[in-house]
C-alpha cells in the first residue's frame, strides 16, 4: 500500500511542480490536493470502465 502512495505522490509532486514553485509554503498542501484529484480520477475511470464492460 505504501508503494502505491509513493508512486501517487511522485506523480502529484511532478504535476504540482509544473504550476507551483517547490519552495512555496503551500506546496505540500497543493501536492496533497493534486494527489486526491488523481485518486478521484483513477476511481472514476475504473467505475466508467466497469460500466462500459457490462452489456
From TrEMBL:
Keywords, alphabetical: Membrane, Transmembrane, Transmembrane helix
Transmembrane portions of the chain: 32-51
Name the UniProt record assigns to this protein: DUF1328 domain-containing protein
